[in-house]
Amino acid sequence: MSERDESGKRDEFGIGTAGEPNPGRGPHRGGGFTFRPDTHPTAGWGAARSVGEVLYRTREPLAGTGAILKMNHEDGGFDCPGCAWPDDQHGLRLDICENGVKHATWEMTHHRAGREFFAAHTVTELRGWSDHALEAAGRLTEPMAYDPATDRYVPIGWDAAFATVGETLRGLASPDEAAFYTSGRLSNEASFLYQLWVREFGTNNLPDCSNMCHEASGKALEASIGTNKGTVDLDDFDKAEAIFVIGANAASNAPRMLTALAKAYRNGADIVHVNPMVEAASRKTIVPHEFVAMGTLHATPTGTMSIQPRIAGDQAFLRGLAKALLEMAAADPGALDTEFLARHTDGLAAYRSLVESTPWALIVDESGVPEAVIRAAARVYRASRRTVIAWCLGITQQEHGVDTIREIANVLLLRGNIGTEGAGACPIRGHSNVQGNRTCGIDHHPGADFLDRLAEVCRITPPRTPGLDVVRTLQAMGEGRVKAFVALGGNFALAVPDTVRSAESLRGLDLTVQVSTKLNRSHLEHGRRALILPCLGRTERDMRPGGVQGVTVEDSMSMVHLSIGRRDPASPHLMSEPAILAGMARATLPHSATPWEDYADDYDRIRDTMSHVLYGFEDFNRRVRRPHGFRLAQPARERVWRTPTGKAEFASAPLTPAVPPAGHLVLATVRSHDQWNTTIYTDHDRYRGLANLRTALFLNRADMAERNLAPHTLIDITSIARDGTRRTVHGYTALPYDLPRGSAIGYMPELNVLCATGDFSTQSDQPLTKHLLITIAPSHPAAAPADLTAEPLSAPADRTAAHVHDNPG
Ligand SMILES: Nc1nc2c(c(=O)[nH]1)N[C@H]1C(S)=C(S)[C@@H](COP(=O)(O)OP(=O)(O)OC[C@H]3O[C@@H](n4cnc5c(=O)[nH]c(N)nc54)[C@H](O)[C@@H]3O)O[C@H]1N2
Ligand SMILES: Nc1nc2c(c(=O)[nH]1)N[C@H]1C(S)=C(S)[C@@H](COP(=O)(O)OP(=O)(O)OC[C@H]3O[C@@H](n4cnc5c(=O)[nH]c(N)nc54)[C@H](O)[C@@H]3O)O[C@H]1N2
Ligand SMILES: [Mo]
C-alpha cells in the first residue's frame, strides 16, 4: 500500500489560503511545528536518527545498509546518486553521508506505482496529493500513456511508446519545436547518446538543470581563467592554509565536504564561511567514518570565522577583501603575488583603480558587513600561503552571479592562488553528474569545435544555431513555439520558476515524455499526449545483450569513474536510460546510420565513439577501468589560460546595488536538510532547528518588529517581478532568525511560485531564485495593522523603478 496523502485535497500549486496555514509540499500530517535553532554538531547521531527515519519509511533497513557499503567504491560499487562531491582517493571506504544514504534508499523503496496504482487514481485526483505522497507511491514499473477518456495513465508497450515519440517528433514543422531537458544525474554515456539523437534530429534545444544551478560559474570561470570548471581537487583541501566557503549549505547539500573541512581544520587551516545564515557547516562535525568520535560525540570544528553578508552582498564583500589587501600591499610587499600577476594576468591596472575608487562606505552598505570584519577576513587571506575559495548557489542564482564569481577569481589571482597546490577555485556542483552532462555534450550553446568533431566522427550534420535553455524553453512553450517536450530525469514542472504559468505551458504541449524512476509533478502537468517511461536507477543491475553494463560519471573535481549497479531492478519491465534513448532515437530517425541498437547493447561502444569526439576521453574504456578512474585535464591548473589574451583576466565590473528598496526584502530560496531538490523526505530541517514545517520564512528580528510581526505570525509573501506583476503565497509562518536586515530565506520548491519566468539573470540566464524582491504582510486580513495593509500598495508598480539592481537606496 502506498503512503497516501493524509491531509486531504491541497491546492496543487501550494499558493494556500489567506489566514490558513499552508501545508507545503512535504508529508505534512498536521500538528504543530517546533523551532529551536541550536548548535548540535553536524552528522553524528542526529544523522543516524534521521537516516533511520527515512530507512523506516522506505521499509529498507537492511538492504539500505548493504547498499551504502557498496556505494562510492573504486572496486565496482555504484556512484552515490546524491551530490557531486568527489570520493576520497586514499582508501577511505566509509566516508558515507546521511543524505547520500537517504537518497540511495529513496530509490530502493519496496513500494511500486504499477498499473494498479494508476488504475485507482485519476490524474486530477493525483494533482491534489502532496509531492511527498507522489514520490512515496514508489518506483514506476512499466511504460504508461495518458488516456484522456478516463483521465488516467494506462499501460503501453515500449515499442508503441517509442512509436508515439517518433511519430510526434517527425510530425513537427521543425525540430526546433521540441525541447529536450536533462537533470544532472544522467550518466556520461546516456548524455552523449541523448545529445547525439537530439542533434541528429536537428536541434540544440537541450535545456538542463545547470541552467538553474551553476551556469554563472561556468561563464565566469571561462572568462577569467579560460576553462569553465573548478581548479582544485581533494588534495588541495588538505594542503590549503585557508578555505573560504561562500553561499553553500555544505552540511546538508555536500555533507562529505565536512570531512575535508574537518581535516583541513586539524591541519591548522582557517575556514571562513560567508553566508547570510550561519549554517551548520561553520560549526562542528562528527566525521562520519570516525566511529570512536561517533561514540564519544567528539566533534571537530569545520569553521573558524563566519561572515554574514546581506543576500546578494557578496560582490561588495569580495571587493572589500580586495581593497583591504591592496591597501596592505602599500606597506607589505608580500600581500600580492607580484611575480604571478606580472607573468600570468591581464587587466590588473584597471581593476586596481576600480577597487581604489570604490569607497569603503559603499562596500559596507552594499555588503552589509562591517569594515573591521572585512579587514579581519583580508588578514586571514593575507596570512595564508595557499587558499581555496569554494561556492555554491548562494552566489550563482542572482542577477550579478557572473560578476560575483569573477570577483572571486580576482581575489584568488591577487595572491597567485590558481594553478598551485593547496589553492584554487571550487564551484560545489549539485547533481552527481551535472558536470559530466555538460562535458558530454548536453549544452544548448555548443562550441564549434565540439560540433565539428561530432560531425566528423558520428557522420551527422549537427545544427549550428544555439538552442533554448530552461527559461527560453519556458518562454517558447508559453508562446506555442515549442510543442513537444522530453525530459531525461528530474522534475521540470516543479524545479523551474513560475510554477503556475509553467504548468499551464506544459499542459498546452502536444506531447510530454518523462523518463523517470518515480512519480512526480511533471507527470501530472502533461501535454495532450503524455508518456511516462520508467528507467533503472543507479543502484540497479543493468543487463544488456553485451552483459552487465556500467556507466561513468564525472564529479565536481573532474574525476571520471565507473558506476555499476548490483541490485535487482525494481521491475522486470524497466529499461536503462541508454536503451530508452536508443529506442526513441530509432523511432524518430528510422533511416539513421547511427548504430543505436549496438550502442544500447554494449556501452563500451558508446565510450569508443566518445573517445574520438570528446577531448580528454582518449582511450576511455581502458582508463575508466583503472581504480578511481581518471582526471580530466584542467589547463588552468597548469597555469595555461585559454583566454583570448592567453592570460588570466581580471574583471572590472561595477558594484551591483544589493540593498532592497524601503519596505521590501530580498528572498533567497534554499533546500532543507531533508529534501533532494523537488524530492521531500520529511518536513524537518534539523540543523536550522525546525521540525514539521516547510512553509516558513526566516526573517531578521528587526525586520519583523518593523512590521509588527510577532514570531510565528502567519504571513503572506508577495513577489514583485521585473515586469511589475505580483505573485503571492499565503499562510507561511514568520520565524525570527539570525539574518542580516532586508534578507529573507524560505524553501524551494514551494516558493518557486514567486519567481516570474522573466526574472532571470541578464548575465547567466539563471532564474533569480536567490534574488527575489518581496513584501510580506500578516496572512489574516483582520490581523493586519493599518500601516501594513497599506504597505504593498506604496511599493512601485514597476519593479524596474524599485528593483534592487537599479536603486542603490
Ligand atoms: N541533501 C541534498 N543535497 C543536495 C541537494 C539537495 O537538494 N539535497 N541539491 C544538490 C544540488 S542540485 C545543488 S545545486 C546543491 C545546492 O547546494 P547549496 O548551494 O548549498 O543549496 P541551497 O540550499 O540552495 O543553499 C544555498 C546557501 O546559500 C546561502 N545564501 C543564500 N543567499 C546568499 C547570498 O546572497 N550570499 C551567500 N553568501 N549565501 C547565500 C543560503 O543561506 C544557503 O546556505 O546541492 C546538491 N546537494
Ligand atoms: N526556487 C528554486 N528553484 C530551484 C533551485 C533553487 O535553489 N531554488 N535550484 C535549481 C537547481 S540547482 C536544480 S539542479 C534544479 C533541480 O531540478 P531537477 O533535477 O529537474 O529535479 P530533481 O528534484 O532533482 O528531480 C527528481 C526526480 O528525478 C527522477 N529521478 C531520480 N533518479 C533518477 C534516475 O536515475 N534517472 C531518471 N531518469 N530519473 C531519476 C525522479 O523521478 C525524481 O522525481 O532545481 C532548480 N530549481
Ligand atoms: Mo543543482
UniProtKB/TrEMBL annotation:
NCBIfam families: Fdhalpha-like. The keyword Zinc-finger does not apply. GO terms for cellular component: membrane. One of its GO terms (molecular function) is molybdenum ion binding. InterPro entries: Asp_de-COase-like_dom_sf (IPR009010), Mopterin_OxRdtase (IPR006656), Mopterin_OxRdtse_a_bac (IPR010046), Prok_molybdopt-oxidoreductase (IPR050123), YdeP_MopB (IPR041953). Residues 139-513 form the Molybdopterin oxidoreductase domain. Residues 1-13 have a biased composition (Basic and acidic residues). Gene3D superfamilies: 3.40.50.740, Dimethylsulfoxide Reductase, domain 2. Residues 1-44 are annotated as: Disordered. This is Molybdopterin-dependent oxidoreductase alpha subunit. Keywords: Iron, Iron-sulfur, Metal-binding. It comes from Actinocorallia herbida. The keyword tRNA-binding does not apply. Pfam families: Molybdopterin.
